[in-house]
Each structure stands twice: as C-alpha cells, then as structure tokens.
Write a structure and sequence with these properties.
Mean pLDDT: 96
Largest sheet: 14 strands, parallel
Shape: elongated
Oligomer: single chain
Number of helices: 9
CATH topology of the largest domain: Spore Coat Polysaccharide Biosynthesis Protein SpsA, Chain A
CATH superfamily of the largest domain: Spore Coat Polysaccharide Biosynthesis Protein SpsA, Chain A
Bound molecules: uridine-diphosphate-N-acetylglucosamine, calcium ion
Structural class: alpha/beta
Low-confidence stretches: none
Distance between the termini: 80 Å
Helix content: 10-25%
Number of domains: 2
CATH architecture of the largest domain: Alpha-Beta Complex
Number of strands: 39
Radius of gyration: 32 Å
Length: about 475
C-alpha cells in the first residue's frame, strides 16, 4: 500500500512530466538507463512510485531512446494516470518538455497533444533520480507557492558538471548556468540545479515558446525557462541524497546504497533486528515482520516474506516465504516456503517449489527442488530431493538421492508418513514408498514399497578371515622390488 502525501492547495490541478528519453551513454550498458535495477527494481519505477504518492491528475513520461522498452517499464509500474509521449530526437530538456505539452508540431503521430491541457501546476522530474521521495516534492511545491517556477537545488562540495544556481540579493533565482558556460565566479558556486522543478502552466508555456538552441550543445534547455521567467523563480534546497542523478555505474551503486539504507531503517523502526546493516541487502518488494532477526551477510530479494524467523548469517533468499520460528543459516533458497519452526542449513540449496512443512529440516549440503517435506520430517545431511513428496515424521538418511531424471523426463518420488530411509539410498523415480516403510541403508529402490514393509537391496557380503593382515604384511615392507 502506498502512503499518500498531500500537496499544498490540492484543488490546483497538478501533473508531472518525467524525462526518460536520453541514452545514458555514460553507463556503458546495453539496456536503457532508467531500466537499470536499483535495490530490486528499475530506476524508473522508484521515480513513478514517488509520484504515485502525490495523487497527480496525470503523469507524462517522455520516452525516446529504446522507447518501447521504456514504455513497457512504465506499464509494469502500474501507476494510475500515467501516459507516455515520444520524443523522436533528443533535442534537449526544454524540447522534451514541449513534447509533453504538445507544443511541438507533429512530433510523433501517437502523441496526444492535449494530455496536459488541464494541468495548472506541472512538476518536472528526471527518470534517472531513483532516490527522490514524495515528501521532497511536497517541500518543493510548498516552498514555491507564489512563484512562477521553483527549482529544487542542493549544495555539493564538488559541483562540477551541474548547472549552477545564480540568485539575486533577495534570494530569487535569476539564471541557471550550465557547467560549460560558467565563468570562474559562477563555477565556484556550490548550489546546483537538480533538474527538478515546479512550474505554473501559463508562464511555462510562454517561456517554452521563447527557447532557442543558441548554446554550445545546440539544444533547447529547460534551464533557459528559468532565465526567461526570472526573477519570479524561487529555489528550494534539499539534501544531496534526495536528488541523486544517475549518469554512471558509480552513481548507480551509490544510489542503491542510499535506498538500501532507507529500506533497512524502515524495518528497524518497525521492530526487525538487523544485526549488521552494512552487510545486509534487502530489496524493494520484500516484507519482514517485527520480531525477525536478520544476521549479517543476508540478501533478501524479490517477493520474499519473512515472519518472526531468524535468517542468516549468510543466507540468500529469493521469492521465499519464511514462517515464524524458522531458522536459515548459510543457505541459498529460491522460490520456497519454509514452515514455522523449520530449520534450513547450514549449506543447503533449496530451489523453486520446495515446501518445508512446520518443524521440518533440510540440513547440511542438502539440495531440494519441487519437493514437499512433511511436518517434522528430516533430511539432515548430503541429500538431493527433487520432484518428491515426503510425508510427516519421516527420516531421510544421509546421502539419499531421488533419481528423478532418466535423461529425457522427470519423474516423481512419493514417500509416506513415518518412513525411515536408510543412508545412501537411491530412490529411482517413479517410485512410491508406503507409510511406515523402512528402506535399508545402501538400497537402490526401483519398485514400490508397501506400507509397513522393509525394502533392502544389497549384494551378498564377502568376509575373508585374515585377508587384510596378510595384505598389509606384504605391502607395508620397505619397497624393494619396484
Ligand atoms: C541537466 C541540467 C543541469 C542539471 C542536471 C542535473 C539542462 C540543460 N541541464 O543537465 O542544469 O544540473 O541536469 O542532473 O537541463 N532528456 C530527454 N530528452 C532530451 C534531453 C534529455 O528526455 O532531449 C532527459 C534525459 O534522459 C535525462 C534528463 O533529461 O533523464 C537530463 O538530461 P541530461 O542530458 O542528462 O542533462 P544534464 O546534462 O545532466
Ligand atoms: Ca544527467
């Protein structure tokens, strides 16, 4: 569920434009910039989610480079009132804004020029800022009341590369100067343009009509709108962590760290013990109940759900449900359900379709796949259990293997309740072992075993009295005849 944030003067029709048409070449990656995964979900989804919290009338995403992929991303974000427009050529941030407003002539036949016809207040954000949070956008709108435009800014120790904020003596913004156009004094200004703005519609449209490509890049800059509207332009300063713009792999990892810390904080505030946040990786989409303990070195991914269980140290869980009281140590678990008070590991590999019923155990060096282990049943050591169901209260001896594959097809193994499978047994599927049955250690079981029966399959033992002693006597002598 999304927490909702109320913008000031909620009666004003407010929309947002998200720029996501650029190539992001500095990431040196084959996928579109905004599709990069940050803390478990695409960058663009973080941005759209922040906007979704604001009850906007409309969110317009400007796509261009790899437009189809970005459109798919927008769709999978499932945020209401979100529409894409195509910017065929990336002619600058100002031009992208004109596309969103339908102010370019016949830019792309599918663009609907009236998308923002009702918007009186327009937020502009970039698709490459995954750490932006809704309360920052509320601050921007609040701080900008009465201005024709308001820029979100931040103070950087090293402002290199960003547009600098020039203010007049009353603190209003008069100009944004791009790095390449700065003089020495301007270059020393530490307050920079984050690229996030709040505009009043009428002045914005008027200013967009006056943009030129008269700059070193030959692009239409949205920053020039600020110069045109000055000095009726304000600025709201926020912390750098809120407004990270991702251009390269270094910044991508930095933004992931910021989001990761936020996710962990939220769990800590909700009563989850996270022993070492620095080595804990919890993706967006995971949920953890109060009372859970997350030991160092854990990765919790996908749709993992954790009750009041103890996870780790060093567990890697994906799309897995863990019930109260379960423990998982030094293990990799994917697509599994771990019942209450069940134990996993150390060094287990539980693959998709594994279900451990309450109090069941999958111990050291056990691999399972598509397998149900019944209540209180134990697979304590060195086993492979695949395509199988094991009833309650059974014990599966060390080294037991379900031979589920004949090179072409997979077959199932069914083991009843209260069975005992001796160590080093091969259960050759398809095969059924009845309730209360007993399989002698070292058996290869290729036929069904009835309820309560013993199955044992062993070669005749050979015992030769004195053989070993003679053997040692012969070979343990100093080596003479080699
Ligand atoms: C921009 C700002 C700069 C600010 C910086 C903050 C301008 C001219 N400069 O510079 O003042 O400090 O952001 O990160 O706005 N895009 C389109 N269509 C285009 C061009 C860009 O959709 O035609 C999108 C890009 O995909 C990107 C965003 O707009 O998400 C910003 O463009 P980019 O070229 O990265 O601007 P910067 O040089 O970073
Ligand atoms: Ca940028």
């Amino acid at each position: 569920m999304r927490v909702r944030y109320l913008l000031p003067q909620p009666e004003i029709h407010t929309a947002a434009v998200v720029l996501a048409a650029g190539k992001g070449s500095r990431l040196k990656s084959p996928i579109p910039k905004v599709a990069h995964i940050v803390a478990g979900r695409p960058m663009l989804h973080w941005v759209l989610d922040a906007l979704a919290a604001l009850n906007l009338d409309k969110i317009v995403v400007v796509v261009g480079h790899e437009g189809d992929q970005v459109r798919d991303l927008v769709e999978s974000a499932q945020v209401d009132n979100t529409v894409c427009v195509t910017q065929v050529e990336q002619l600058g941030t100002g031009h992208a804004m004109r596309c969103a407003l339908g102010l370019t002539n016949g830019e792309h036949p599918d663009n609907d020029p009236s998308l923002l016809a009702d918007a009186e207040r327009i937020l502009l954000v970039y698709g490459d800022g995954p750490t932006l949070s809704p309360h920052t956008l509320v601050e921007l709108v609040e701080g900008g009341q009465g201005n024709e435009a308001t820029v979100l800014t931040t103070m950087l120790d090293d402002p290199t590369g960003y547009g600098r904020i020039i203010r007049n003596t009353s603190g209003m913004v008069t100009e944004i100067v791009e790095q390449r156009d700065t003089n020495e004094t301007q270059a020393s200004i530490r307050e920079i343009n984050t690229g996030i703005y709040c505009f009043e519609r009428e002045p914005l449209v008027k200013a967009l009509g006056q943009l030129t490509t008269d700059n070193s890049q030959g692009e239409e800059y949205i920053t020039d709108v600020v110069g045109i509207l000055a000095p009726r332009v304000g600025a709201v300063v926020v912390a750098p962590d809120e407004v990270m713009g991702i251009n390269d792999q270094i910044q991508l990892a930095e933004s992931a760290a910021v989001l990761r810390t936020r996710i962990i904080r939220a769990y800590q505030e909700n009563g989850v013990a996270i022993i070492d946040p620095a080595t804990t990786y919890i993706e967006h989409g995971v949920s953890i109940e109060p009372g859970a303990v997350i030991e160092p070195g854990c990765h919790l991914r996908g749709t993992t759900r954790i009750g009041a269980a103890r996870i780790g140290p060093n567990a890697d869980l994906t799309d897995t449900t863990v019930e109260d009281g379960a423990t998982i140590t030094y293990s990799v678990v994917t697509g599994a359900t771990i019942g209450a008070d069940a134990t996993v590991g150390p060094f287990a590999h539980l693959r998709p379709g594994t279900v451990l019923a309450p109090k069941a155990k999958a111990g050291g060096f056990v691999e399972t796949k598509n397998a149900t282990i019944g209540e209180g049943s134990k697979v304590p050591h060195l086993s492979y259990i695949g395509d199988a169901s094991i009833g309650a209260g059974s014990n599966i001896g060390a080294g037991t293997i379900t031979c589920n594959y004949n090179g072409y097809k997979k077959f199932r193994t069914t083991v009843g309740e209260g069975t005992f499978i001796g160590s080093d047994s091969m259960l050759i599927a398809p095969v059924t072992i009845g309730n209360g049955a007993y399989v002698g250690a070292g058996s290869a079981v290729a036929t069904d075993v009835p309820d309560g029966a013993l199955y044992i399959e062993r070669a005749q033992p050979v015992v030769k009295d004195g053989w070993a002693s003679k053997f040692h006597a012969r070979y343990a002598k100093p080596d003479t005849d080699q």
